[in-house]
Every structure is written in C-alpha cells, then in structure tokens.
Amino acid sequence: MRVFTILGPSQSGKTTLARALADLDRAMGKRQETATVAAMQPFSFMGEDWAAIEISGGAENQAQVGPALTASDAAVLCVPADPEAAVLAAPYLRQLEEAGIPAFMFINRMDQAKGRIADIVAALQTYSQHSIVLRQVPIREDGRVVGAVDLISERAWKYIEDQPSALIELPEEMQQREKQARSEMLEALADFDDHLLEELIEDREVLAAEAYDVATQVLQHGEVFPAFLGAAEHRNGVLRLMKSLRHEVPHVAATRARLAGSQKGLEDVVAVGCMADQVKHLGKTVLLRALDGGLEQGHSVGGSTLGGLTGLSALSDGHGGEDGNEPGRVAPQRGGLMAGDLGQAVKSDHLNLGYCYSADGSAGLPSWAQPRPSTYRRLVIPVHERDEARLSTALDRLRGLDPAVRLEQDAISGRAMLHLQGPLHLRRVLATLEKEFCVEANSERVPPAFCETLKRPVEQQYRHRKQSGGAGQFADVLIEIQPLPRGAGFQFRERVKGGAVPKAYITSVEAGAREALSQGQYGHPVVDVAVTLKDGKHHAVDSSDFAFRIAGRNAVRSALYQAEVVLLQPIMRLDIHVPSVFSGSLIPVVSSLRGQVLGFAAEEQAAGWDVLEVLLPLAAQDTLCHSLASATRGTGWFEAAFEHYEELRQEESTPA
Question: pTM of whole model > 0.90?
Fold first, then answer.
C-alpha cells in the first residue's frame, strides 16, 4: 500500500479531490474521519492498494499535518485557481519543504479560474524555495478552460463532465505555446540532471520516457513541485494526477529511509501513528502505518503489547466475499500488517498520536512535524461538579489524541488550563469531551497573572501572644520590607543582635514572610522584595517555631497594607511568523494591544516569510490569537516566552 496526504487551504476542494481519486476504479473502502479534522480513504487503483489521508484546512488544524506526512510516501497540495489565494497555501508549502517529502500540486477548480495560470504559479512561487514546475497547460475556449496538454507526453486532453478526459489533437493555436511551456519545464528539470541539460544545450529532442524518468527522480528527491491542473468536482484532470502518483510516488522503503535520516533515534522505527480518535464504548483508536513488515496483534510496539489490530490493505476479489463487501470494494485485512499497510489499533492505550514507534520504545516526530506552539489559553470547568474527576481523566486522554493540546494547572485558580491552537480548536475539544467522554464543560479566560511589589520601604513590628487554652505562645519581631530591582525575586536577611531572636526561630520568621507574600493587597503574589528581620523578643517557655512563623507572617501582612503597592504585569517576547505581505498590517494590531514591535526580518529558511519581534502583555496574548488570524487570513502564528514584569498603568487595569 502507498499512502499520500492531501492538504491545503480551506475551501480548496480537498475532500472532493480525495473522493474523485478513490472513485476512479470504483474500488474504495470505508472512509474514516477524526473529529472533522482528518480523514483516511483507502482505495484501489489499477490493482494496487492506496490510501489518501485528508487534513482539513485552517491554521488550527495544521497540527494534524505532521503525523500524516510522517506516515506518507507523498503529498498532494490542493490549491484554488486564484492568485489572490496563493498566500493561503504558504504555511503548507513551508511545511512540505521542511519535510522534504515528494509533493505534487493540484491547481483545483480550473473551471472557475480567476487568473492566468502563469500568475497563479508566480504567486505560489513567492512562498516556495523549490521551483514550481507546470506539468500541464490549459486549453481554453471562449475564455473557459476545457482541457489540458501534458507537457511530457505532449498529448492534449479535453475534459468531459464526470468522465475520463478524451484524447484530442493538439489545437494548432496551442502548438507554439505548448512548445514554449515544455521547454521551460525541461529547463527546470535539467537543473537536476546533467544528461538532460546536455541534450537541451545540443538542441536534441528529449523523449517522453526520459523526461518522465527525470521528473520521477527529481520529485522523489523533493527538489521541485510538479503542478497539475483540473476540477475535482467534475472529475477533470483527476486521472492524470492519479497516474502520476502511481508512476512517481516511492514505496514505503524510501519513506522509512527518509524518516530514519531526518532525526537521530528514528533508525529502528517500525510504525507511525498518523490518526487517532476516541470512540465511545471502544476507547482510543490509533491508525498505524507499518514501516517494517510483520506487524501483528500481540507484537511489541512502543515497549508494550499491541492490542487489537485491523488491517485495511487487502482487496476483495471484485465479486464480494465472505465478509459481504460490496463488489470491487476494499475489504478489511484479517492478518498482520505488511510494510506500508495501514491498520487500526485498539486496546493499546500506550500508543498516541505524534510519535514514531520502535519495538521497544517511542520517539517524538521530527521537528518539522511538531505542531505550532499552542498559545491560546483557556480554563476548562465541568458544568457539573460531580464530573471533576472525569474531566481530569478525559483531558489527559485527549493529549494522546491531539499533539497540539497542552495541559497544565493554573497557579491562580487551580483549574485545568489548556493551551490550544485557537478558538476553533477549543470548540472542537469541548465537543469531543461531551460526545465521546460524556463530560459537559465550559471554558473561561485565564485570570490575569499580575504580581505586586512595593515602591518604598516599610518597617513593622508585630507581637504574637496567646496565654489561654493550654501552652502559651509568644513571639515579637521587628521587620523591614523594601523593594528590589525587577526580577530580583525574594530575599530574606537578618540583623538581630544579642540573641534577641534565637537562630532556631529565624527560619520560621522567613517561612511566615514567604507565606504572607503569596497574596498581597489585591490578591496577587508579591515579588521583588527583601524582608529584613531587625529585632525581636522571645520567651524561654512560650516561644516556638509556630509562634514566630505567625509573627513573621502577620508582620509582613501589616507592612504590605501600609505600603505603597503597585501592580506588575508579565510581558512576553513574541516571535510572530507571517507571510511578508502581512508584516506592515501587523504593526497597528500590536500597538492596539499595548505591545511594542522591536523589529522584523525575513526568514532565511522560508521564502516569503517575515519574523516580527514583539513585546506584548501576557493578558493580550489570547486577543492577539484572534487578531492575528484575521489580519493574516489564518496563516500567521507566534512563539511566546516570558521576558520581564513591568508596572501596570492605571488606565490599563483597575484592581478589584
């Protein structure tokens, strides 16, 4: 079985293309979908097993692309026939180049083309370091695309609605244009083949067979993007694309070698998880692709025994069979998986999406396959208190199904905090919790992570005395609390003379001070202060660690309420990655969120992309997720790291 991933912007026709390819020989298996994000369609073409993994478009779904590409032999980038929409393909072109995977481009909906093919390719080329090479040119009648000419075979095909295209004579008015386009294609291929270059220099005729061989070699080395034309909705150009997939896509051995060479520790990989889902009454299911033969139920995969395994690669005999499959449809495979086969693993809770598996362990996917940073934060709270424990379990299991979900506990509220790709990702997670785990949950914004500090020193004395109800308690302390430079943290000092406070009790005073600093006047932690124990008194009988801890805590609390306190907000340093066409429009967006643009520069490893360095309050980070998606048409993303705290101005927030 050979596997390829279909990816591209939203509304580019990926689902239609996948179904059109699978239906060419009327031999398709059951389509499997994962939470409306990924789908796998097994099918047969000319007696060979295939599977198309389709990933929904949109920045918040791109985390699913990495696992799918890791398990695939090739990719098909589906793009609309519109130069203005080329920027929407930029994130996918970037990831395909980072992956080094053989990739085709299918310019879809040619019947609705909004520009010249040359303009579409030029717009796409802006975001690709590899040459995009047209393998076809369109045939037009009255301004409409009615067919295409294959530039290698030099055959002309006329589109027929919902049928294979018809072979026709090359129109006379197309001959000069076709000759020029073929010459440009061969020149692009000759950059990677010396013999072909020699033939072109000597003006010798290049045979179609040789051109196909060079195109195949160049594709398999990931050096160009061959571009095909069509309209999947009408089945136009689909057969030509499928034939190129059949002749040019490498087999699983090349995929395994590419993966082994991409990152240390992947040399012994036997399987990759490419899709995962939670199915009610069945549990976690992981779609595995075997990269090495002989994968069976009961074998050790990922350091533990593989549970139930259902293969999807065997073909029926075309007449139905004992399983009752429809004639000509793909039947489930009952035995183990051979190299290249796909199989559904159940009762294997140790398997997760986003990992490569050897027999005795697992390793993370290569860096190019990792999801973009999950920078959209939300608290998740169960609707019913009785579901608190179930929610915790469900969220933990979700991490194994979705590599873009990060889970931690919010330090302020104590609630579960999810780091996600955006609001649509959040909506999908909440729907999965309700549908598959029967846990209703709501989301809330994460409370502001403010801190407090002092503007001037304060001295405070506190005496703790209790003489009734058992053993007495006595402790007397004199402390001074003063501000420190930003980022200095907490310091405790003591200047007690003459043993007024025994050394055994000084650590108790420090513990009490730390406890008091955990919550200041406005309910936030107090940072960047020094507490100095200057003097005190003790009693030989009634003093204790407990008494001095209470005295230290209450002395600091009293001092805080007398001091001039200011709020501090965390400032994050962001690297915002955007297509360069959007760089200028982001500056007012950042400014409106009280951020500061430090500068921007072109990304060396990604054609057509810029990186903006920005300082932004953490409280504005979620808003930036919305604004960035709008300003960049869903193509931009950012990385965030804590930079420093700075004073919160009165107009930005009023303490409650």
Answer: no
